[in-house]
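Lab meeting minutes (informal)
Scribe: AK
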Amino acid sequence: VARQILLLSAQPFVKPMQSSPSVSPIQRRHTLPASEVRPLNTQDAISVFEIEREAFISVSGECPLHLDEVRHFLTLCPELSMGWFEEGRLVAFIIGSLWDQERLEMDALTLHKPRGSTVHIHVLAVHRTFRQQGKGPILMWRYLQYLRCLPYVRRAVLMCEDFLVPFYRKSGFRSLGRCAITVANLTFTEMWYPISGHAYMRRNSEAIRFPQGLTVHPPLSGPPTLSQPLPQTEESSEGSDV
């Protein structure tokens, strides 16, 4: 909030002069939360696509989701997305949708099946200036804990290139073998994660705010929180096809 400072003259009977409005740097610093994790919406679509395009085109030459598809899923199922913001800037995100078959098929790339019990994770990506900080594994872990609070979700699935299989295994995913989906000349491994039980709920400063008053907290024995980054991971693990 701009403050106007009145500069008073030392001489009597002189009308005070008013300086031009200014904004305190300290006040501006606290305008936005330092770190926030929340669902994405269609207003975030351009930022999402810019991060995704930079992360994937240089590696595989293909984006998991084009801009219209990003908007499509953020319109139909925004509750299955998660974005990590630093001072209002999107630095990492996940986008998912529901699927109703045991294995992924081509339709899973573009369809959302509201009656499905499987969350298809389309993409995990981290902004290039925030890689090598463990944000990808932390965000994935928080996302999986959030899915435990959704009673209709039974498992999560994704497809990734072979060099990313170890990365997702560290997050608890298991291989289902070769995926039936191919994109151009790319082939993928299909992986799954069982969703069971309920998220551990407790009061602390790391609460994640989601719609309808849902607050998701990390388990007491889980991976590090935002204030405790994971060890550095390979850069390609936080910006490749999933």
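Next up, CB showed the second protein from the same session:
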Amino acid sequence: MGQKINPLGFRIGTTQKHHSFWFAQPKNYSEGLQEDKKIRNCIKNYIQKNRKKGSNRKIESDSSSEVITHNRKMDSGSSSKVITHIEIQKEIDMIHVIIHIGFPNLLKKKGVIEELEKDLQKEINSVNQRLNISIEKVKEPYIQPNILAEYIAFQLKNRVSFRKAIKKAIELTKKADIRGVKVKIAGRLGGKEIARTECIKKGRLPLQTIRAKIDYCCYPIRTIYGVLGVKLWIFVDEE
């Protein structure tokens, strides 16, 4: 039988870390967990809603032309997965929310953070706790599996060949110093009647080595001919 495990959970404490930092009594733990989920969903829904409003607006220029092109694509047709992850740190009277994002142009506008804080306060009803939101830009966005999965999703929604979309995503990782990448896609590929699975791998991917820093994401893509599933592994480095 196959012994499969999530690569991120398998490496917590070595190369991966938790995205929530707080302490609660056992009877209050479920409430804190639900509160974290509400915060993350509220942030993603807010970004998705504002991106739809601003999809026809002019995007500010960036120093890299490839980042401009990618930014335009992401703003015109994708959801909220340019967010790599959201860290939540809870204190007695304060909740710190750190949004790690690949292309933070949307959240840098005036009044956006204040409006997002108001929405979160209404969502979680925290009377005794203040809310502090900060944004951190990811240094190398093209080694983040969430961003690459979003890129593949955008290409497939525009009816680009899945092999071409995957190969282009792997080419984007060449700009970063990584050891290996693997992309697996499943579903009605190309609109065919029978679902199948395709996999493209480049470089090394030591999934059984705990000290190997491997990033992973699983992402559903809703197309006109059904739902496709994308899994992405990126071998960054070995400690």
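CB comment: Residues 55-81 have pLDDT under 50 and may be disordered.
No objections, moving on.
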